[in-house]
Known about the structure:
This protein is mostly helical. Among the domains are: 94 residues, no CATH class; 65 residues, no CATH class. It contains 15 helices and no strands. The radius of gyration is 27 Å and the shape is globular. It starts with a helix and ends with a helix.
Amino acid sequence: MNNSPQLSLDRVWKPLLILTLLFFGLTQASDIIVPLVFSLFFAILLNPVVSFLEEKGMNSILAIVLSLIFVSLALSGIIFYVSVQAKNLIVDLPGLVSKFNTFIDDLAQRFNGIYGYSTEDQINLLQQNADKIISSGSSILTNALSATSNVITFISLIPIYVFFFLLYRSNFKKFLSRLSERNNTDFLNLAGEVNAMVHSYIIGLLIVITIIAVLNTVGLLALGIKYAVFLGILSAALTVIPYIGIFIGAFLPVIVALITKDSLFYPLGVIAIFGFVQFLEGNFITPNIIGSKVNVNPMAAIVALIIGGKIWGIAGMILAIPICGILKILFSHYPRLKPYAILLQSTNKDDEEKSLEELKEKVRKRKMKKQKQEMKETE
């Protein structure tokens, strides 16, 4: 009886210590782990293509190289188009800045009329904070250069990692097979489920992005917004950040509409279009295309986004949902961890009834065990 409080305390502080060390390690090793995770996902995506080429008699190395070249060309085409559109936006930037200044002046006049602050007072307030902004400029520039360097390193590492993941995938299968023999667990089957989930999620996400890009572009073109195609594709690409990506993507088109059009009808129209697209994406497009492949409930997804953003920033937010889905699969394969899988998954009627039946069965077994113990004690 005296040991039970100690045992309860051990069950609390040990998992908390492990989680703390895990989060600290993931944060410190982000430069190593994040490219590896992205590379693994790309390798899973390209694996069917490489396997198809190998079945046609092509050498493994050549099949992998051709697949990487094809993906690189596709991404280069997208980057080139985005660069051209961004260049056009930069060329028109002086005119946009002039219109933006006019908009700010009009807003200042309205602010003056409502609250009684003169334009001079507002300018003085801006000047008082100008020194702080200028002093922070060097640190912002340093951070920007550091981020650019990290992105270049990240992009250069991924093709190398993907190449070796695909080249030595048979070694990973042998490793999992040997591991299964030692631990009496079918790790190959587990890896197969993870592979299928990640592959379906990525393909589905690409289809969803394409549909959203078309809908956004058509809506912006209908309103006559400048750079409609560029803004439509950019906002759709940001949907890789679940839930909040589409709101971030809508911000720039609203600003462009605000400073290039003379009426508030256009920015409000942009908000209405993006709100309608978000409604379609959340209720029809994503559920029907991605479906229940990841099967993570919204609450778990939001918590995963917050944790992923805290640990790995934007990359962590992009990876949060698929990693959460992988954890759910892992938990479901171990009896002690199955309750956590139920906690993560989207609840439907069949799952709820099954969980209740399992809970009832456990309660019944505990009652029977308790009754047997009581009978033994009375004897």
